[in-house]
TrEMBL record:
<dbReference type="Pfam" id="PF01261">
    <property type="entry name" value="AP_endonuc_2"/>
</dbReference>
<feature type="domain" description="Xylose isomerase-like TIM barrel">
    <location>
        <begin position="30"/>
        <end position="305"/>
    </location>
</feature>
<keyword id="KW-0413">Isomerase</keyword>
<dbReference type="GO" id="GO:0016853">
    <property type="term" value="F:isomerase activity"/>
</dbReference>
<dbReference type="InterPro" id="IPR050312">
    <property type="entry name" value="IolE/XylAMocC-like"/>
</dbReference>
<dbReference type="InterPro" id="IPR036237">
    <property type="entry name" value="Xyl_isomerase-like_sf"/>
</dbReference>
<protein>
    <submittedName>
        <fullName>Sugar phosphate isomerase/epimerase family protein</fullName>
    </submittedName>
</protein>
<dbReference type="InterPro" id="IPR013022">
    <property type="entry name" value="Xyl_isomerase-like_TIM-brl"/>
</dbReference>
Amino acid sequence: MTIKISGAPCCWGVDDPKNPYLPNWKDVLREAHLAGFSGIETGPYGYLPLDKTILKEELEKNQLTIVAGTIFDDLVSETNLPNLLNQVDDICTLMTQLPQDQAEVNQKLKTPYLVVIDWGHEERDYAAGHPERAQRLSNYDWRTMISHIIQIARKAAEKYGVRVVVHPHAGGYIEFSDEILKLTEDIPYEVAGLCLDTGHLLYSKMDPAEWLEKLYHRVDYIHFKDIDRDVYQQVMNKKIRFFDACAENVMCPIGEGVIDYKEIYELLAVKLKYEGSITIEQERDPRNAGSSLADVKKSVAFLEEVGFNK
């Protein structure tokens, strides 16, 4: 089995492209190479330059491929649809002209993927990780969001040959088990797959190994992260936004938290025969990006020790 270890700019605190404390994108690519990543995601729309020539040069210099791009935005509001579809054009146009990996024998679909995440709702952000108190969308708003995702997926596939994978994310309107299952009922697999994230599953009260196996028939791509048990218990007792919890270091280097990656390796590599990329994410405050390289090196070393390949 070949499971390549990739990374994402969020390991350097890059989640909001407007954050004034973001590290320089060239430094992120350089450290991604030093960490041992084979590929990287583009991160939030607007962080990496949209000039393919400039970006391609830096990727090649650092021996990195592009694994995925991300739409991290409000998927619910009808007025935001033109913006979402514009992002499809910009992100897919860029990704498909950048260095890419060869597909592995058992890889379901080739990279790059377009990871689609609902975000931007304060009422849900403060309820991240709390399925018992988080409000759900009305039927109308849910149908609207599903329609938007389908339009995004069809445009990406038909115009650019890019596969959309929907990422359940703490603090958005696709987070908890009931929402994930409803999504799989309402969007056919031929339209869009899933990107499951071990850390977000656990943060939102789901067992990562159980849900990876349960939904593997819909999973095209996987994110890895780990959670510090003590910090998690603390933030669950606070009224706190998801990324504020990340700033308190709820996410830790893989192998130092509560997720059993030996179990996940046995599941993915041995039982399910997963091949392709997994992407390490360790969200943090970008003002703490000085420790990013050391942390991602720890994560890569631990995963390689468990059995995952670069």
